[in-house]
Amino acid sequence: MPSSQPSRRPVGLAPERVSGNVLNIGEVLTELTGDFPQISASKIRFLEEKGLITPQRTRAGYRKYTPVDVERLRFVLALQRDQYLPLKVIKDYLDAIDRGERPENLPGGVTLGPRMVSDQLARELGSHARRLTRETLAAEAGARPELIRDLMSFGLIAEVEGRFDEHALKVTRACVQLESHGIEPRHLRPFRAAADRELGLVERVVAPVASRRDVASKARAAETAREISELCLNLHSALVQGQIARMEN
C-alpha cells in the first residue's frame, strides 16, 4: 500500500533520483573545496545526520551523490557561511520545498525557484560575502564619513585588512536610521557591551563541544551558538516590545 507521506526529493527537481553520473564523497569534496576550503567528509556526514541531504546508498552501504545533491550541499553551506543561518531554519525551508510548498523568502531574500539554477543561486549567495572599502560602505549605507568614523571609534564596526563585511553594512544602515531619530553612536555603546556579554555566554555554553578537534564537533558548536544567539535576540525583542506595549495603556 503506498505511503500517504510525501517522498523526499531534491530541491526544485522531479521526484525521481538521477541514477547515473553519481559521485562518491571524495569527488563531492573535490567539487566543493574551491568554494568551501574547510569542507570535510565529517561535515557532509553531519549535514546528512541533520537531515539536510539524503544521498543514495549502494548495496554495500556506500554513499552516492547526484549533481543535485551537490547543489543542495552548496546551497546549505553558502547560507551557513554567508548569512549565518541556523541549520534548523535552512532545513525547515528545504523540507517545505521538498513537500511541494512555496515557503516565504529566507532571511536576506534568498529563495529557490521552481527549478534550481546554479549560476543564479551562486550569484545571489556570493553577494553576501563581499568585502567593502570605507567609501563603498558609506555609499551603500547612505552614511556620512563622520558617522563611519564614530562607529569605528565606539567599536560598533571594525575593519579587517582594510575592508568591512556585510555585518558592518547592516550595523551602519541601522545607525543611519537611528541617527535620524537623534540617536548617535555614543548612545549605542551599551549595545556593543551587551553583544560582548551575549557572546561570552554563548562561548561558555558551547565550550565543551567547541574544544574538540574534529570538524563535526566544531560544526555542532557553531550551530548551537547560532541557535542560542537567535533565542537571545527573541528574548531581547520580547522584553522591549513588552515595555513598549505598556506605554499604550
From TrEMBL:
InterPro entries with a match to the protein in the record: DNA-bd_dom_put_sf, MerR-type_HTH_dom, MerR_fam
Domain HTH merR-type as annotated: residue spans: 38-96
Keyword check for ATP-binding: no
Keyword match DNA-binding: yes
UniProt keyword terms in alphabetical order: DNA-binding
GO MF: DNA binding; DNA-binding transcription factor activity
Pfam families attached to this UniProt entry: MerR_1 (PF13411)
Residue ranges crossing the lipid bilayer per the database entry: none
PROSITE patterns: HTH_MERR_2
UniProt-recorded name of the protein: MerR HTH family regulatory protein
Source species of the chain: Arthrobacter subterraneus
Lineage, uppermost ranks: Bacteria, Bacillati, Actinomycetota, Actinomycetes, Micrococcales
